[in-house]
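User: two proteins, same treatment. go.

Assistant:
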Amino acid sequence: MDWNTNTARQLNRGTQTQSQVHPQPRVNPTNKTIPYSKFECLLTTVCAAIVVWMMITLVSTKISISSAQHQLQSVQTSISAVNNSNISKREEISDLMSQSHLKKTAVKYNFKDANSDVRNVK
C-alpha cells in the first residue's frame, strides 16, 4: 500500500467532467451603516454618564484622601513636638527633684537637712 496516494483524488479523476468555470463579475461591496436604535442611544448615553460620574468621583476621592493624609501628617508632627516637649519637661523635673539639686538649693538658702532620708527640704 502506498501512503502517498490519495484515494479521493483517484476516485474524482475518473468522474470529473470538464465544466467550464465562469468567472463572476466582481461586485463592489457597499458599506451600509445600520442606524442606532433609540435604546442603543439611550444605553450609550447612560453608560457614558456613569463612566464620567465614576471618573469625577475617583478624582474627588483622591483629592480628599490627599487632604486627609496632609492633615494627619500635620497632627502627627504636632503630637511629636508635644511628646518631645513632655520628655524635656520630665527630664527637667527629674533634675530639679534630684538629691544633689535639693542639697545645692539647701546650701544656697542656708537650710539644713535634719534627716538624710527626707527628700523635701523644710
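Protein 2:
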Amino acid sequence: MKRLNLVGQKFGRLTVISYAGAANNGNARWNCVCDCGNDCVVDGYRLRKGMTTSCGCYRREYMKKAIMQNPKTRAQMGQRGQFSHTEGVNVSAATKLRATNRSGVIGVSFDRQTSKWNARLFLKGKLVLNKQFVDFKAAVAARKAAEAQYLAPILQRTTKSKN
C-alpha cells in the first residue's frame, strides 16, 4: 500500500516535518513539531484519525485547569500537613494501600496489555523499582525487597529522630 505524504500538514497542534520510518505494525511514523515547540514522533494513523493532536501539552494544560477548578482539590492546596514527607519521601504514598488498588499489595498492579504484574517503588522523585513479572508472587517479592532496601532505612531514621 502506498504511503500518504503528510509532510507540511497540520493535525491539531502538530505539524508534520518528515517521515520517521515504519512502526512494528507497519504504520508510517512521522516526525512532528508541536505548537509549544516540542518534537515528537507520531503514528500516521493516529494523526489522520485525530487521535493524537499534540505532544502531550494539551493534556497537561487541560488537566491543570481541571484540577484548579475542582473544589475538593482547591480545599486541600497549601495544607502541608496532609503529606508525611520524610527525607524527601512521601511516606504515606509509599506505605498505605490506595482505595483504587486491586492487587491488595502496595506498588503491585496488573497490566492488561502485557498480561504481566508490575512492581514499582517511587522514592525521592525517581522510580527505584519498575519491573514486570509473569508471576504475582514474584512481583510482590520484588516490591518487598525494594521496600527493605530503600524504604526501611528511611523509616528507621525517622522513628529514631522522633524518640
